[in-house]
Give the backbone structure.
Amino acid sequence: MTEYHQFSEVAMLLKLLPLLSIISFLFTSQAAHTEELEPERKPEQEQGQGQIEDLDDPTALSSFLGIRTGTNGYGAIAQFGFNSPDSAFGHNSFIQFKDDFETLHLRHFSIYKQSGTGLFVDMQRNNANAIPVNRASVGAIQIIPLSDKLRINPALLYGETWTDDKQARKTLFPDTSIVTLYTFIRWQVADDWFVNLVPQYTYSINGRKIRLFELVTQVGHNITKETSMAINTDEDDNFWLTLKHAF
């Protein structure tokens, strides 16, 4: 058992090293860039810095590319935001690969900008375990700003979970209808630091009995206006680092 744990820890560190190297490089480059520009900065230029891109609120209408690595393997992240000033609606589509690209997660929001009410579509395919599991849900989400620094986005979804394994479908995992209560909580601790909580509870209506509580906790830092990094953990004691860059 001891040898197994030692091997797991070494493997985990090896997975984290590439992302930590990139983050270290970005910090070093940004510090050098800031020192170089500091003598030339003028008061009016400081006021026109522009807003930081919000890359870690799932309902934000931003576009980015990213990578992730941690105890649940390597992965990649991308989001494509559509926010026309002439439209009353904003849209974003999100895609994530994790578990060494064995799990695919797709998510889409269409938000009515005036009220913060929106359509929420969520789909996932997990090939990381012995039985592949699919999940697809649709519902509504509401953006509720409680203050300048605190926001909560509750959602209710209805959908289906199933497996492609015919034998498992007959015995262990029949097609199952599910209801999911989802909440995203955002606390902007400072201009460049934030904490996100994402509790989620899934309840099956028929088929396989599911009473699943999930919780992702994220502590993040905006390295620049276009780049953020975050450390994440979930209810299964997995943890991973993410690095995102806006485009």
